[in-house]
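DM from R.C. (forwarded with permission)

"hey, sorry to bug you on a friday — could you get me a structure for this? deadline for the figure draft is monday and I only need the backbone to look sensible"
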Amino acid sequence: MTSIYVGGSFDLFHPGHIRLFKAAKEAADVVIAAVNSDEFFLSYKGFSPTVEESYRLETVQACRYVDFAFIMPSHEHQATTLASLRPTYILHGDDWTGDSLLRQLGITQEFLRQHDIQMMYVPYTPGISSSTLRTRLKTRGLK
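My reply, with the result:
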C-alpha cells in the first residue's frame, strides 16, 4: 500500500489545492494531509492566515482525495511525524523543490534515505494561489 504525505497551510482553499490532492490520490492508496497550525503559519509567513486552522482542517478533510488530515502544530514536529507515519512519498508542487523545501520540512536527504521516503513533485497550478487571492481581496477593499 502506498501513502503520500502532503503538508501545507491550505489557506483560501482553491483549485490548485484540489489538483495537488487529486494528483496525490492518483499516485497512492492513502493521502495524508498535514495542515499547518495558525502559529506555524505565522512563524514562517510573518502574518496570520486568512482562515483559522480549524476551518482549514475541516475543508481539507472534506476533500474527496484526502483520506486523513490533521493539524501540524509546528516546524519542530514535522520530522517526528514523518518518521512515525512513514509515508511512501512526500508530495509537493514543483514550484518549490530541493534542499530549501527539505529544510522547511525539517528533514534532510539522509532522513529520507533512513526512512525509505521519496519526494514526489507535481506541476504547480499557475495563476492561482492563496497569495494571489489575498492580493485580489485587498485590491477590492476586502480583508
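R.C.: lifesaver. The two ends are 43 Å apart (CA to CA).
me: no worries. The chain has one domain: 3-139.
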